[in-house]
Amino acid sequence: MAEAHPVGFQWVVEAKRRGAKVFHVDPRFTRTSALADTYLPIRAGTDIALLGGVVNYILSNGLDFREYVLAYTNAATIVTEEFADTEDGDGLFSGFDPDTAAYDQRSWQYEGHEGAAGEDTARARETAAGLRHESHGMPVPGRTLRDETLRHPRCVYQILKRHFARYTPEMVERVCGVPREKFLELARAWTENSGRERTGVLIYSVGWTQHSVGVQYIRTGAIIQLLLGNMGRPGGGVLALRGHASIQGSTDIPTLFNLLPGYLPMPHHADHPTFDDWVESIRRPDQKGFWGNARAYAASLLKAYWGDAATPDNDFCYGYLPRMTGDHGTYQQVLNMIDGKVRGYFLLGQNPAVGSAHGRAQRLGMANLDWLVVRDLFLIESATFWRNGPEVATGEIVPAECRTEVFFLPAASHVEKEGTFTQTQRLLQWREKAVDPPGDARSELWFFYHLGRRLREKLASSGRPRDRALLDLTWDYPTHGPHAEPSAEAVLREINGYEVAGGRPLSAFTEARDDGTTAIGCWIYTGVYADGVNQAARRRSRHEQDWVAAEWGWAWPANRRILYNRASADPDGRPWSERKKYVWWDAEAGEWTGYDVPDFERTKPPSYRPPAGASGPQALAGDDAFIMQGDGKGWLYAPSGVVDGPLPTHYEPAESPVRNPLYRQQANPTRKVYAHPVNSVNPSPPQEHSEVFPYVFTVSRLTEHHTAGGMSRTVPPLAELQPEMFVEVSPQLAAERGLAHLGWAHLISGRAVIEAKVLVTDRLTPLRVDGRVIHQVWLPYHFGFEGLVTGDSANDLFGITLDPNVLIQESKVGTCDVRPGRRPTGPALWDLVEDYRRRAGIVAGRPGPVLTPGVRPAGGGGDGRAGAS
Amino acid sequence: MLPDPNSLYGPLDPAPEAGWTSAPPRMGFFTDTSVCIGCKACEVACKEWNDVPGSGLDLLGMSYDNTGALTANSWRHVAFVEQPVPAAGGGPGHTEFLGMPGSQPPGRTGGADGRTDFRWLMMSDVCKHCTHAACLDVCPTGSLFRTEFGTVVVQEDICNGCGYCVSACPYGVIDRRADDGRAWKCTLCYDRIGAGMTPACAQACPTESIQYGPVQELRERAAARVAALHERGVTEARLYGHDPTDGVGGDGAFFLLLDEPEVYGLPPDPVVTTRDLPRMWRRAGLAALAMAAAAVAAFVGRPS
Question: Is the pTM of this model over 0.80?
């Protein structure tokens, strides 16, 4: 965190000043470790084993916050007897279909709801369906069978206990290389600092997400935080640190293929032929919670898009919305480019030639387009790969013959335009423009507004139906200045939403209507422009308000700073403790009150119980704190929505030198693998030849550089701070491989060979894992061939293997070989890679089997026809 | 004790001593290295604000330090020290840990099993703005001067590049630029503090490792911080440059360190290099007088 988020780290330092104990878990000793009280080196890709160890520590010692767990989680809910756990077999849950390498989730459901189909997980994987659950759980029935004593063998609590029973301190040491004493120190500190009087926070970043089991990493963390009562309470939570200033914003109002604003799913052509089908797939008639109003959010969004053209009679122009037909994720797109299926590509503030996994595939794909538009501050690698890229040296791209026409358009930086950033707390903060952008540089807003305007002008006389979607768009933002810059505030007002008649800005998403009388660009942001005031621009000093600082910026939803804060009070609505008082029930006034905006219906008493047959918000009981979940509970166990299992399970990374010590199944059986000739996976045990790539490598950031380097390797005072590509190795590995400090080394994977200067340092340490020594090396991923300082790109080493839930790539761990000296150049470079591929038995386009040979499906329904037992 | 009238040694308030009447309180830096995260924001903010040129694109291999030293083109310098922490109690096979950074390449510790604890020290170094600034004392042009804030600043339009200040600095801070020959160093952002602003480095520091304020107040804050760290068992915390009775009369920019100053590349006991000037001049004067007397005596004693 100190390394990649130094500004945010100031609060960790502040907490440390006040006596907090800081633990840091990382494969390499970083700037964060330097400030931590305890540093735990870990083998990359084994965090579920570590966190699972903490879950086991909590459950086997009875350290969960029992009242919280009973009231606010699904611990007491009983699961169908058809469910079979990974522990019952070789590491697969029930319902696995070897043909599709996906689960049928019917056998994971709650008791009494076995008929619930869950979702088609093979399709869910294609469309990264996990993303749309960022703000809400999967639709599940509201009413469940419970055992409040937690003794029922099939209640979630007991299932959880059995599932993690083997994640002992000894197993943690064996899998992760973390000494058991250090592990116990962590587990003790975490549990001792949670409960009524204390809370603990968990902070993660892409070191957790960029794995083939990335979503389950976060799930494990969330399970711990729920068991310890650390959710919805001050000082608690699971915080995702985002990689750039407004990544949270670009998920809320997404730049993703499968989402629309406010986490409404992008319709799928087969599943959602009509508006009603689409809306009913988001809400479910008998589920609890605020997604019950999805129809109003959806109708208001379409009304914002298509204005007067959108009416209840034409389903608000639902027919205009694009439809998904399968996997349109960034990696599938790149493979499609290589195959000649894509003609044009916009790159906005992104540098995949350096920043994405398998850089060679990225560059070969972009070299096979009709046109490519790159908007960036500097001439980045993704704009010049066709003449300066490594494939030019190897002869794979010939500049004179490269068919892609590249348009480079200079972009305005964040200080040269106004708008909002949304950060990890969901806080929107308005930015003023400080200076005019230089030369032809323009804002993204300017670019898209005028691109749309010109396209509409060109199509104005078109009579073709397919052009109606563009021509009927509301595209009337006021502009100002010599370049006709659109008003960012006008856009914010539209995002906030307004009454169609009269234009009054809405104050809350509860005002959304499904009859076409409201238009809302992003329903979760409603309120940011309440009363016609830019609430995101508020900057009242923290010294002039209480510690929650509700008048600094604006947080979605409803300016609520902590989500699910009903859980900060006990089931009867009283604060868990005076020290951790946050939101509570004021019986005299008959309403919820507190320091924050209560995340609950204001006047619904804690004693409220829904009438039979209720649904939506009405069905939420007075102690259902997790108001967006279909059953009102925090999920220790996910009966659906997570396509690789209802519980996290340790699988080895797709490339690992270690045999999975916990299960016969080696890696995530549902991971997304692309059998494309450009892609390959290095062999892992029990496959043969895994010794050809004996070392684990991981990549991350240096404080001195920003992501793919486009904003730092180009800036003199930053470039000089880390002027060369390097690889960090332990003294032991240096001795083993004959590497000299500040000398050259080259690293080889099945995809590429790159070279780097060697830094021999004690900050990398060999780990003893399962009786053998595992060496890990670390690389910064900032370098490329453009800019003031250049070097080979670490991401070139990676292949493409994705998490099945959200299609994020496994780019935090892979295997490689390390050799002293510089890499070969020209054709000899590929001779070296080919030699390794031959020795490792890698065949182009044929990744190893997803299912480890010999693994038997688990329990009932393992034949892919679950629910038949 | 009143300082020597020549004010070359001992405690004093430098701005009034330099002739400023109704000077504001002396301003300075307290750099608390125990919370430094080595982000180098101070280096970058300094370069941006003061328009300091680049200092070279060299990978130095000194941990994450690619700046190397305080120079004419680097007015803040973050040092990185990788060192093993002595194992508690030592025991057989353990050599005495003397607190010095290891020679390159590292590799002092054992394998996967025998690894000792390890730590990584970071420290943002800067001009000390000494109470007794030898650079200023030796400057023949008056380019170096004492500001009303008690800081020491080079006026680049007066500096003639003689370089006397370079050899006079007991910390090796001040340096000449190769291209123009003039001397450059930290000004404690004289232009900013004169306008009531915080110096760029302190403003940019995310963890308040670099604190700016009246020196007297900073000294009190530093003493409290050391006490707090000692209470928490960080007994190796100590202050450096805070003492008005030290060899330079105390620094305007002083530090909290977690190891001996030598570990960070700082002189353990700096003394203003002009301290002995009065005595030297007295001796030289005496010698001259003696010589003159001898000469006179030679003539006086001469038989006529």
Answer: yes
